Amino acid sequence: MAAPPVAQNQRRALMFGLAAVALWSTVATAFKLALGYLTPLHLLFLAALTSTLTFVALLVWQGRCIETLRLGRQRWLFYLGQGALNPFVYYWVLFAAYDQLPAQQAQAINYTWAITMALLAVPMLKQRLTKRELLAMVVAYGGVVLIATGGQWNFAATNWLGIGLALLSTVLWASYWLINTKNKDAPIPAMFWCFAFGSLLLALAVLFDPRQLPWHEWRALAAAAYVGLFEMGITFLLWLTAMRTAERTSQLSMLIFLSPFMSLLLIYFILDEVIQVTTLIGLSLICLGLYLQRKKV
Fold this sequence. Notes:
Blueprint: H1 10-24, H2 27-35, H3 40-62, H4 65-100, H5 103-110, H6 113-125, H7 131-149, H8 160-179, H9 187-207, H10 218-230, H11 234-245, H12 249-255, H13 258-271, H14 277-294
């Protein structure tokens, strides 16, 4: 059963969109703070579990439990695979990248996922790249190289493991959305099953991990709960509502460009990272590439 239609209201859509972007802007800082107390696996397990419970609460509130159970019975194998991809593999790789890199580098590279998706659409969806999309890729990945090397071209000093993990996360995230291009299931039940199966897989991984979860550390639990709520849970609902309410989605899509720069401010003031000029230039190139990709001829 599809979700009921929402009345269009551009002002309301922009309010929801701004709220989502503001919350997304905090997650790079939240990732680094949480990783000060937790391993990437432990952070992911606790965050995914929080997100799963959030979707349960939303489904109960909307009275859609029967519909969701029916979907799970019909398509459990599909959502098991989806849960293995996201959150299990994608977020584990992403958190590992944040564990390796300064927050400013990891979050900037992660914003290239839309460019990666256009590249992957060629083999996966048999689409062709336009000249504009090729130019967008050159510009955006030029920004990635600038951020990765700090503009000094000292390749020996570059953390290629962290950079590789950050780039791999964009491939995984883009693949997840490309696989879902033909999925017509209602978003919230679908997301619930992704995170439910992902949490189950993560629980098994934690059982075989020799390191113990720090259940006694309230700051670790609070940080993981924040990530689960505002990276994986509530923010998704805000953005989904904004997209369904909007009269013109083009205005909403432009809000995305605010998030990385707002995020840099938080990284500077809360994490005390010195923001490199090369990060600002490289991130600007990434955003220019995204703009060129989205702009219609």
